[in-house]
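pasting for the record
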Amino acid sequence: MEESIQKYLRDPLVGKWVAVFIGVAIIWIIVQLLRRNLATRIKDNSIRYKTKKLLGFVGFLVTVVFIIIIFSDKLGGISIALGVAGAGIAFALQEVIASVAGWLSIILGRLYKTGDRVQLGGIKGDVMDIGVLRTTIMETGQWVDGDLYNGRIVLVANSFVFKEPVFNYSGEFPFLWDEIKIPIQYGSNYIKAKEIILSAGKAIAGDLTTQSREKWVILQQKYRLEDSQTESMVSLTANDNWVEYTLRYVVSYKRRRLTKTELFTKILTDIEATNGEIKFASATFQLVEGSEIKVSVNR
């Protein structure tokens, strides 16, 4: 019994496995210590998150390299078996491989980062985490109106970046163009109505004009884009019921609903202050009495 145990302990392969277990344990203890130390020193959440993710990736990479070095003399004899097994594994795990490739595309191509508001696979929300296989999103919308969180956390496979469009609301141009429509009665002071609506747009959303303009100029230098107006503007059309004014303005992707509330509040207040010079329009329906019908029945 003792001889068999000693023979087992003298086996080089056993020594290699012991070295692997000890080495891997030491590597990840160091990684965890670094994570805890940096968590207390780095105050910025974004930088702390990225640093932790980087340390985890480095720890994984060092572990793989360490194992390869330990078993380097044993790899030659099993290379053919690994090749055959690898083909089968690749077929069985093609979705996983596509997700890993998607992760590399997200990181290297800078499709989006944590904190960005995106739409992936029909899911819209803010990116909480970008894993090797999945992206974690705090969802917005659905049964909640506007761009507010609904509390549902969604995991989206990274392979979706190859299958569907990726909408990034906060990438290189973190602004959106939005519009509101105001119906005004015929016979109102059209010029004054336009002035009131445009003044509200400049007062509420005008502070973003300079910022959005600077970002747009940078995009024009980097990509082929035509010039676009970032200042608030008003257009109008006349239909069968009323004169419809459309206010177009630039807004931060996180303040669309709040900005609309402020704009409608100011426009309603200013128009009502005109004492009837400008009136809002609403749909009206007139019921027309039908003609009298006489019916006679012959028996």
